[in-house]
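Per your request, structure below.
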């Protein structure tokens, strides 16, 4: 028993040493990826962004963005070509940040009358959270609560793109704020995927041109599952359509039968019952007997 216990303890110690070795190896691989790939890639990305914003400032292209606001509608804005590109460096991490603004085009936004305290609070709260102005003609009830108002969006929407890499994680983490609605989108890219093609897609994403930056490559097995599911849904919709058409035909036939039956019933309903017809003929019979 003593020998068995010592063997078990030794096996556990070996497992821990192996786990520690694996962790150390992974850490070393991440640090190597950061030093050899991510740092140089961020240098190239910074140069690319610098050239991009220089050309945008020169050309001043008209770039529109659209934001949907529940209870209000669509906010339309245009990128203001004033850019702030900054970076921060640490011993084992680095971050590049690009900031600019979208100016809301009030004349392209709807003027919406919102009625009801809860609806006014919802739209007003959304505008306030995102620092959007444009509430007009507020009306309050006797208790001092807003019960109606007119909204027409105005102001600016800040846009931010961050590119962060560090030796601990060994990947490029991209964060985009307010590019696709009032949301924040995050994507991580492995060092092997960083190159000129990625920079091209980043640039197209920033200026709102067609791109594949956020498109995920799905495994073939998952794609096959999606295809199978789509086919099943198509078959289901076809059967539902057939059943619906069959039901409509049956209902139409029932309506026609009911209409014809109703006409016959209406015709006979205007005639006297058989008993009343007999009563009406009795005087005529008596007259005929007297004459004979």
């Amino acid at each position: 028993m003593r020998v068995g216990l010592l063997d078990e303890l030794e096996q556990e110690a070996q497992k821990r040493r192996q786990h520690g070795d694996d962790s150390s190896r992974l850490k070393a691989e991440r640090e190597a990826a950061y030093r050899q790939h991510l740092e140089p890639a961020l240098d190239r990305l910074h140069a690319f962004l610098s050239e991009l914003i220089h050309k945008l400032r020169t050309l001043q292209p008209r770039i529109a963005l659209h934001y949907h606001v529940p209870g209000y509608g669509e906010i339309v804005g245009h990128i203001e070509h004033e850019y702030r590109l900054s970076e921060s460096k640490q011993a084992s991490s680095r971050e590049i940040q690009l900031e600019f603004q979208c100016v809301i085009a009030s004349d392209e936004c709807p003027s919406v009358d919102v009625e009801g305290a809860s609806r006014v609070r919802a739209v007003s709260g959304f505008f306030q959270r995102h620092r959007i102005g444009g509430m007009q003609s507020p009306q309050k009830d006797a208790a001092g609560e807003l019960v109606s108002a007119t909204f027409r969006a105005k102001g600016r929407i800040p846009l931010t793109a961050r590119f962060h890499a560090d030796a601990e994680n060994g990947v490029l983490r991209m964060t985009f704020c307010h590019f696709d609605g009032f949301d924040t989108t995050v994507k991580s890219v492995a060092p092997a995927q960083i190159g000129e093609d990625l920079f091209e897609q980043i640039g197209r994403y920033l200026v709102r041109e067609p791109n594949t930056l956020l498109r995920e490559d799905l495994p073939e097995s998952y794609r096959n599952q999606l295809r199978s599911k789509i086919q099943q849904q198509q078959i289901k919709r076809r059967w539902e359509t057939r059943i619906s058409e069959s039901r409509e035909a049956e209902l139409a036939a029932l309506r026609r039968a009911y209409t014809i039956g109703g006409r016959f019933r209406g015709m006979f309903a205007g005639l006297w019952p058989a008993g009343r017809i007999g009563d009406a003929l009795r005087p005529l019979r008596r007259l005929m007997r007297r004459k004979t």
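The chain has two domains: 12-216, 222-279.

Regards,
D.
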